[in-house]
Fold this protein.
Amino acid sequence: MKAGFVAILGRPNVGKSTLLNALLSKRVSIVSPKAQTTRDDIVGVYNGKDLQIAFIDTPGLFDGEEALYKRMNRNARRSLSGVDAVLYLVDASTKDLEEDITLLASIKVDAPIFIVYNKIDLVRAPEALAGKERLGASFPNYPLIEASILTNFGLSSILEAVKAALPEGLPLYPEGQISDKDDQFFAKESIRQYMLRFLHEEVPHEAAVLIKKLEKNDGGYEIEAVIYVEKPSQKAIVIGRGGAMIKQISMSARRDLEKRWKAHVRLDVRVEVLKNWRADPKLLSYLGYDGK
């Protein structure tokens, strides 16, 4: 059989997590219209006939001064170690390809790189052609695949291209395993997902979730979580008037996890202030952003 690792790279909000979920027909990575939704490398395992692909969803590549964002960028690039192929996503509707061209030129791997020209449905034919010609001139050896991931257009082409690049080998993960992440990770990400959905401006990006307790028993799951923010004003926003916002986030996350695990979930979430956590390496490691 063919088996290997494939890294999914690109700028923030180009559809990397949406691509992973679409390829697996399961929600492994949370998605949001807001940039920097993904903070961790996440492996999603695709199984086909005589085929296993471990797709690595990565944080968006961009310049950020905080220690958190530097670690996210470092982790994204570290995911390239040992991969058998790279999918680099480009937003076809973007007006300026210079940043993508710079980032693509900075990717140094022996594995083949495929450019996935996503959101092709959002641009007119002349603009799409101009963008493809610009990318083709800069990277003539990188095959370009047109896609509209939200409509599933191009998914079969992506799979065919990746399969051809993979080596023969044994399965990388046991049958039935869809991710390298554990229950604590999915509990944390579910809470983050609804923070991104219900909170506005920068509050979700300046917050972190830590699972203090997760126990599975005959009655289901018992989870205790803490949302850390950097300022008291942010704590008030996350809690909301009369506790309405934290209740909405908690209830939505609980239902999401019950659907995922098909079991009852008791979820207790509180909010605490942890000043400057995004800039403190020790606090980043405490919150799980250790760069490993």
